[in-house]
Amino acid sequence: MASAIPYDPNEFEDNNPFAEPEVHHVTPAVQPGPQVSDEPIPEEPHSQRSTTPDQQGKLTEEELHKLLPERFSSKYKLKIALINIEKNKPGNPILKFNAEVQNLPRYRQAKYKEIRRTYQEIVKFNKYLTVSNLECFVPQIPSVQTSYPTGGEEETKQLMILWQEWFDRITRNPIIIRDEEFVYFLENDFGYSVINSNRKVSIASGLVRKTLKQLAVPYDAYEELVEFRPLIKAAYLSCQKLEKLLEKNSKMEKQHAASIGDLSQKLANLSQVEFIHPGMKNMWEKLSKIKLIEADLILIQSYNEMGTLGDGLRIFVEDFYQVKEALTNRHLIMRELVQAQQQTKIKHLHANKMKSKSALDPIKVDEALRSLEFATKAEESLTLQVKRISGEMIFEKDEVLQHTELKFHKLLKNYTLNRVDHHRKILKHLENIRLDIRIVDDKGGLSRLNRENLSNLKHNLLQSQSASGDSWSSRTFRSLSEEQDLKQKKEQEKNEAAETEGKESEIDNVVDAKNAAHLLGVATF
Amino acid sequence: MNHDDDLTASHWDDILSPSTHTSYNAASSTYLDPEFNGFQDLSLGDPDNTTTHHDDTEPESSEEDSHQAPSAHHEVQESSYAVDSVTESPNYNHSSAYDTARSELEQMHELKKEERAKQKSKLMDELASNDDFDHQLEQSVMAATPGDNFDSLFNDAKSPIKFDLSADVKSKNGKSKQFKRPRKFSSQKNAKNLKSTPAKENENLGPLGSTDNKSTDNLSMKSANAKEELVKESEAPLYDLSKDAQREQQARTPAAIAAIKAHNGEHDPSKPKNHLEITVGDPMKVGDITNAHIVYRITTKNKNLEPSTFPQQTEPFIVTRRYKDFRWIYHQLQNNHMGRIIPPPPSKQTYIGRFNESFIENRRLSLEKMLSKTSSIPDLSNDPDFIMFLTSEDFANESKERERISGSGASLQNNDMLDNPADTSSANNGFMSSIFSISNKPQEPEEFFDTKKHYIEALESNLQNFYSAIELIINQRIDIVNIIEQITVAIQELTDLEISKKTSDTLAAFNEVQIKLKDNLDRVNLQDHLTLGFTIEEYLRIIGSIKYVFDQRLTIYESYQNNLSDLNKKKTSLTKYKSRNQVDKISQLNFEIDKLQTKTDSFEKRFKTISDTIKQELENFELEKIDDFRNSVEIFIESSIESQKESIELWETFYERQSLSSY
């Protein structure tokens, strides 16, 4: 190795050891493919020479191609479709899914059917992915617990959606799908446990991590990422706060529903006492019934509120936390790089000293040069790693933001639909009993507005929510019915698509005389 | 007039006897008290009336009658007024009818005196039957209850509907004009409702069940009675007047109430009735730290331009009163009007939080409602104490003076009923009182009151539950509003981060909706509190008043029973002495028995009066309860509906504006 030192003695006099040497020397690229490791293995110097790294934090297209080849090829695809959630031990259901692989190496099949993995296995897998893919914001699998009643239909529905979403996000990431662990995850016949479990966390953890976090953030050349971490952290905190408040609110509303139910009971009792006047009795009874319905609706609403907004925020919190940690990891690696740079500097100085000495001890010189070379290589690899991470994160940052935006809107949409439904139901019930109150006696209540001769008690008693729109506004738009229309349309489209597909396949499959002749004709001529 | 003298003498004897000062209160509740300037012309006019009756020529007396009838007996008039006003020339009708009836009445009075001594209810019937003016109706009444006494008209609820119809038909023939208004009401939905109820219910608890037949009956009775009072008044003041008051209340059955209410709008200034507009406002903290309290400014305006019982003044009266004073007038009215359900003031608050703004506002509202309700009851609005309360500049001294005169001890009165209506419920009192007082509690003479009492107690406990449930909900809503407020702050934080421009926009809009919904909830909550909550609370206090009235009645009954047993004892000893022929003791005993007899009689009468008053009051209570609760429930429902609409609108707008449907 020592003989291969390409160092030019002139360089040493330059006294700027790491301005140039890397350029001359090695340009190790992180090995592409599934073998993404924390310890990048420097390869043989590439014939192609990389351009000077832009210290301004801008990676050129060319560099990106080299550092992140995964990002620029759509060759590799992995698709996972969740089919079913099977009941198992509480808190550990079995997920059943199909997988489809395209062009990825090492897989033995293109399609995998009905893979069964328990939730805990997936959580472990998820954890592994987080550790082994430092350049990615690995999404966290949503908790098995939802705010809906356990084991209910709503819960299953919600979990299906959330987990499918998680699978989609995982498989959409070009780096993660090349993780070799994915092969094991999909191919293992019976159960799954992390195979590469010996791959330990390369960055600091525990107390060291905590201490390091206290230190000032190292200089970051990538502006987008500089701003990103505080943003995510703040979002994480306020989502957490919001989620807690929502939970509190939901608890209050449950109590509220309970006391409205109680009120209904009290009203029923009161109606028992008011046997003198049938109108009053009727009024109290009706009011009691309405209150009972309202109590139920509020209870349902409190579940829905948490189910949509609350759970959504919790997932956000988990995701944001993961993003934040990934960004912290990047900072730690950058710190390592700074240290490595210092090391190289020291080694360089040492070598220089050696050189200036009158008597040269060949062994010592050899050692000094070797350590210098080693330090330089380490620094080199760290630099590349930081670059790769930064490049990937800049990509993923946009993805995260997009996903957040989409998810937020979806949450708010569901929430809004629930609320509208809730209020519409209550309104309908309330309007139903108006007449019961007016006919308590012949005075007709306040609605009469002192019009003594108004004999028709039923004036303006129409339901305000008719099919043609709400009576109180000119809008004809209805969020709920629109939603239904959309769903129906989608289904129709699906059906149609299926039908046409079916027809096509039928046409394809049917080999009648004419068809056969046609085929043969093509073939022969 | 011999009988007559005896009767009055015994009454005054009774009234002036120191042992029963409560009887004086009873008297003061009538119109005879000379203290009350408002009624002085009444007390003067009455003897005048009687003296002139015998000698006067027809036209003169008719004039006098037409003049006096409205002024002296405004209470009755006011109820019958509605009827009168429908006819084209009410006064003339009355007086002429009266004149023709006069000679017959003179003779009849001789007979009546004897009967009156026996039973007043029977007398009532006789009076009615002897009225020429009403002879058509009389026939109808007699036909309906052949050879029956007056009580049967009231209590015969076994066939209420049938009776109702017959009375209705008769009145149609006889005086269709007069009954126009009442019939309109009775034939409407109320009647339908009532008819649909099983007859048994009606039988149990009369007021509403037998409302219709009573109302028609009362109206027929009333017109006859209105004229006869003039005569009766001079002859048997206490009896007659209490009867008067009672009749007035009888008249205030639904039909009559409606008539009065309808009439109030087109108020006739010749009426001596006060038409007061009372506002309570400007709560102000006065006094130093040791006796700090809130005073309220009461502004009273009498819409009746020629008041007879109200000091005349073009400017509205403005006085300041503190909470204690409201309690005083409440108790004073309770004592002045035995058996009346007086609109109660709000309950006393614990020392802490006395000066809390919302509490003061609540109390102000309750006090205002109390005064306006009091003034809407004609009897009470003309009460001199009440007028003094509204107008006096020197309330502290005057109130003491009045209290002394009436001997009511209003300022010292026990306030249990007011302060903690919850604790006075039977459940709480039950155990201890059942041990100590069950033995000396007299047997309830009327089943009606027993059932009523149970009903009122059941109603109270249920309303209490209702109230606490509502209050809990209101408090929870306040908590929810607070949490939503925090949520909006958190959302605002998230919005300010601007994760992405679009997300921030949507979140900001979302936050706006949340804030509006929060305000909406807050508003609805306050409204519920002020309508439903307030009404329930008010009725709980009114129930306290009702219970007080029940107690009043029982106290009178007890003294009646005690006197009766004393009387019986004396009588047995008298027969003993008679058999032994001990002449000296016999005369002594005779004297004592006479005295006791009159006392007992007066107690009996008072007991009957108060019982009847209470019955009437309970009827009114039921009707008012229906009205008040229906109205507040209606407001409650309507405001809920509006708030739901607003919520829907907000969410729909949000959905549309943010075009969430594309996600």
Automatic annotation (TrEMBL), chain A:
Residues covered by region (Disordered): 1-58, 479-510
SUPFAM superfamilies: PX domain
Basic and acidic residues: compositionally biased ranges: 480-506
Domain of life per record: Eukaryota
Domain Sorting nexin/Vps5-like C-terminal: 240-427
Protein transport is among the record's keywords: yes
Domain PX: 107-188
Pfam families (UniProt xref): PX, Vps5
Signal sequence region: none
Polar residues: bias regions: 48-58
GO CC list: cytosol; endosome; retromer, tubulation complex
Entry keyword Protein transport: yes
UniProt keyword annotations, A-Z: Protein transport, Transport
Gene Ontology biological-process annotations: intracellular protein transport; retrograde transport, endosome to Golgi
GO MF, any single term: phosphatidylinositol-3-phosphate binding
PANTHER family reported for this sequence: VACUOLAR PROTEIN SORTING-ASSOCIATED PROTEIN 17 (PTHR47433)
Physiological role: Component of the membrane-associated retromer complex which is essential in endosome-to-Golgi retrograde transport.
Quaternary context: Component of the retromer complex.
Family according to the record: Belongs to the VPS17 family.
Protein name: Vacuolar protein sorting-associated protein 17
From TrEMBL, chain B:
Biased amino acid composition, Basic and acidic residues: 1-14, 64-77, 101-125
One of the Pfam families matching this protein, by short name: PX
Family recorded in the similarity comment: Belongs to the sorting nexin family.
MF-aspect GO terms: phosphatidylinositol binding
Topological category with respect to the lipid bilayer: Peripheral membrane protein
Basic residues: bias regions: 172-186
Assigned GO CC terms: cytosol; endosome; Golgi apparatus; retromer complex
Transmembrane segments annotated in the record for this chain: none
InterPro entries (UniProt xref): AH/BAR_dom_sf, PX_dom, PX_dom_sf, Vps5_C
Biological process, per Gene Ontology: protein retention in Golgi apparatus; protein transport; retrograde transport, endosome to Golgi
Superkingdom of source: Eukaryota
Residue span, PX domain: 274-397
Location of region: Disordered: 1-134, 163-232
Gene3D superfamilies: Arfaptin homology (AH) domain/BAR domain (1.20.1270.60), Phox-like domain (3.30.1520.10)
Compositional bias segments (type: Polar residues): 17-31, 78-98, 187-196, 210-223
UniProtKB keywords: Cytoplasm, Golgi apparatus, Membrane, Phosphoprotein, Protein transport, Transport
Name recorded for this polypeptide: PX domain-containing protein
Subcellular location field: Cytoplasm; Golgi apparatus; Membrane
Organism for this UniProt entry: Candida tenuis (strain ATCC 10573 / BCRC 21748 / CBS 615 / JCM 9827 / NBRC 10315 / NRRL Y-1498 / VKM Y-70)
